[in-house]
């Protein structure tokens, strides 16, 4: 049995995404912890190595701020591109940090948010396939539907990581860590 802990500010951690069946989905090699409490972890990375479950590797193209919440079934990646901030939101289990990395289960559904505030729910077909194949319970299905609604409300209300000040403040803090 492991003891869950809280990473320290400035610590570099891995992010490990799993699928419902326990198989690894994707690993981000290095993210700098900008803030960590019992409920949230905010981190930053730039040009970090990502390894897919099939062993394929790639490097992120831009700086990003990541937001994880202990009770919400989603996490948010705020990506800084030339034409503005894009958000990629993963519907997922709440995170767990065990000293080895930030870990969560990816439940296929994603929401992409564009700099103009428009957003799209993605991968509904993949969700339906995996729901059947991996036998997602009715409870998980309901929790994910509720969290899609919460996430859409946050986007529309510019709440949490979707607030303009959020990305400005945490991006500036990340740049200080990178110097």
From TrEMBL:
Residues 21-159 form the DUF402 domain. Mg(2+) 1 binds at residues 90, 106, 110. One of its GO terms (molecular function) is ribonucleoside triphosphate phosphatase activity. It comes from the Bacteria. Gene3D superfamilies: FomD-like. Mg(2+) 2 binds at residues 108, 110, 123, 126. Transmembrane segments: none annotated. InterPro entries: DUF402, FomD-like_sf, Ntdp-like, SA1684. Its cofactor is Mg(2+). The active site is at 26 (proton donor). Coiled coil: none annotated. HAMAP family: Ntdp. Belongs to the Ntdp family. NCBIfam families: PRK13662.1 (NF010183). Has nucleoside phosphatase activity towards nucleoside triphosphates and nucleoside diphosphates. This is Nucleoside triphosphate/diphosphate phosphatase. It comes from Phocicoccus pinnipedialis.
